[in-house]
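Task: sequence design from structure.
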């Protein structure tokens, strides 16, 4: 990466070139995220918000038949025999993101919903969830070829209010749709400096933006105890403003240019089998539109081409199993799942040695899930689920009641 020289006199010509480039950037329409280094550990990875989905590693499109279907597959809501109210807490543990940056822990609402049948064919549901929450802190010990030290980090939290409607078209076919008011709150800043002296570059962004998301689902039972499902959710975009200054040069490099943070589109196809009343197996494959992030990347610093940064659309297969253990006073359900999580971090492929260190990309990795439910005769249900592996582990716990 091109870096600012260590002294003001030598820095002015290069700063003038940088200022000219940023002026063009500010005049351009907003695109996807930037290559600023608070995005170096950025990955749009959504943890399952509901305990059951956590325990199945997200393999829920074909088995959604409770209020959690508002997120997993809105068509599954039509299979609810009674009204249901549920709420859960999601605890995300601390972890590490490439290239060794720290991921902070966060505990908050995971998922809350109310679903009500409107006659024999229609079910409506409303939900509140936090499907994405990520706070990274840049690792100051990462060795950069330029000798620079980078400090700072990025925090982003997505909260959603969702309204879903499901229709039982025939005894074997359900369709559903949902619309969500999605609010993304972002705060990011980072500084570049040598071992001594003032910062050579300081970049920040903050604020919140709202976008509307839509999802559609279908659930079909071609033969008894076999279910097929398809779901799709569109990409979303939130616009923010980037600002950059050089305390070393005393220059404002970017007074405020626009860029977008994107949530990739996702389509899933799934199959569920019930060999017996006590055993349910499910398999699912998701297609995640990560390519839209790299294709619209804004070059916020350095003389790099967008084509040097790669992130492709990817397939994510996952599998799950549920075992029911009925007892006199209550029934127990044990579940587990496994997902092969696709690479979700931007990788730099160009010749700049520093960008190669900063944007190494991520590898495909296995993420497991395990969980259980206790269902009482009075229709109360306690759900717990744990995510194992990946960037960080997590634990979800909730309570539901049908009436």
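Answer:
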């Amino acid at each position: 990466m091109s870096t600012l020289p260590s002294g003001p006199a030598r820095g002015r010509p290069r700063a003038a070139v940088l200022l000219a480039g940023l002026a063009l950037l500010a005049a351009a329409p907003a695109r996807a995220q930037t290559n600023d280094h608070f995005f170096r550990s950025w990955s749009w990875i959504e943890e399952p918000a509901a305990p059951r989905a956590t325990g199945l590693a997200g393999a829920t499109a074909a088995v959604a038949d409770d209020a959690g279907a508002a997120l997993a597959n809105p068509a599954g809501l039509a299979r609810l025999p009674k009204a249901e109210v549920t709420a859960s807490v999601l605890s995300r543990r601390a972890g590490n993101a490439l290239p060794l940056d720290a991921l902070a822990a966060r505990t908050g609402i995971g998922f809350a919903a109310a679903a009500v049948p409107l006659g024999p064919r229609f079910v409506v549901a409303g939900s509140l969830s936090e499907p994405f929450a990520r706070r990274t802190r840049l690792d100051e010990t990462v060795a950069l070829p330029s000798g620079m030290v980078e400090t700072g980090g990025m925090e982003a939290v997505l909260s959603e209010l969702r309204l879903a409607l499901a229709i039982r078209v025939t005894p074997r076919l359900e369709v559903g749709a949902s619309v969500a008011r999605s609010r993304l709150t972002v705060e990011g800043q980072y500084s570049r400096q040598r071992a001594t002296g003032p910062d050579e570059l300081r970049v920040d962004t903050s604020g919140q933006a709202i976008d509307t998301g839509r999802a559609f689902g279908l659930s079909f039972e071609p033969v008894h105890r076999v279910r097929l499902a398809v779901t799709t959710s569109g990409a979303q975009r939130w616009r923010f403003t980037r600002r950059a200054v050089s305390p070393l040069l005393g220059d404002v490099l970017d007074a405020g240019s626009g860029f977008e943070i994107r949530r990739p589109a996702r389509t899933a196809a799934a199959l569920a089998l019930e060999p017996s009343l006590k055993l349910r197996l499910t398999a699912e494959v998701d297609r995640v539109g990560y390519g839209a992030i790299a294709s619209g990347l804004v070059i916020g610093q350095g003389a790099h081409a967008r084509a040097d940064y790669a992130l492709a659309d990817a397939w994510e297969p996952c599998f799950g199993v549920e075992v029911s253990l009925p007892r006199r006073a209550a029934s127990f359900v044990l579940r587990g799942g496994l997902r092969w999580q696709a690479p979700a971090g931007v990788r730099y492929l160009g010749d700049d040695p520093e960008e190669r260190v900063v944007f190494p990309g991520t590898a495909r990795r296995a993420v497991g899930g395990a969980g259980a439910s206790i269902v009482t005769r009075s229709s109360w249900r306690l759900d717990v689920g744990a995510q194992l592996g990946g960037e960080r582990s997590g634990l979800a716990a909730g309570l539901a009641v049908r009436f």
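The mean pLDDT is 88.
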